[in-house]
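Input protein
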Amino acid sequence: MTQARTWREDFPKLSEMTQDMLFGDVWETPGLSKRDRSVVTVAVNTALYRTEQLRSHINRALDNGVTKEEIVQIITHVTFYAGWPTGVNGAAVASEVFQSRNL
């Protein structure tokens, strides 16, 4: 079975800019820790219903020290500001990530 191509292969410049500018510059700017940036990013991706990005950023948040319990609280809190379907979608994505990491 062959591995599916990713957007990074079809969009190499966007991939490069994502790595260099977003994660190499924006995420490295002083003023917020990576943990704090992860909290903000999980909240924003939940609120904007960005399912695929949310999945990767929940993983990044866990790697950056945000706990499962904190992610649950972030998504629950955002639900009341961004809407019930958005929150339930975020909860489903988070549950998939937690399950994949045996949390």
